[in-house]
Amino acid sequence: MGQKKILLLTISFFGLLGGAYLLLQVKDALDEYYHWKSREAVLEKELEDLRIEVTKHRKFLDKLRTDPNYQDEIARKELGYGKEGERLYRFPEEKIHEKKGGIENK
């Protein structure tokens, strides 16, 4: 074999080796790209869910600020308040959950 053939084979070998390395790098880059694209989709969905939740909270606060009947309803429901002359009965939370659990387990 002549020196030109050996040189040509050596250059071809290193060219193929370099090409294989570049293909592996491109594959890794594409894998990472697709990973981040899927992560972006998940985060976009989460962001949309949070925007919906913010809208619900804003509506709740606006109604709470402007509607006296709604204020009474929330005070009764969440804080256990009542109107003057009403009798309120309060039950311990644990007992209610125990009874519900007992009924559901049967």
Low-confidence stretches: none
Order of helices and strands: HHH
Number of beta strands = 0
Summarize the main sheet. none
Treating each run of at least 4 consecutive H or I residues as one helix, how many helices? 3
Overall mean pLDDT score?
Answer: 87
Shape by Cα distribution: rod-shaped
Strand percentage: under 5%
Q: Give the total of domains.
A: 1
Give the arrangement of secondary structure elements.
Layout: H1 3-66, H2 68-79, H3 93-105
Helix pairs in contact: 1-2
Using brief descriptors, characterize the structure shown.
mainly alpha, 84% helix, 106 residues
Task: Put the structure in a nutshell.
The chain has 106 residues and is mainly α. The chain has helices at residues 3-66, 68-79, 93-105.
Structure, described:
With 106 residues, this protein is mainly alpha-helical. The protein has one domain. 84% of the residues lie in helices and 0% in strands. α1 crosses α2. The longest helix has 64 residues. The chain starts with a helix and ends with a helix.
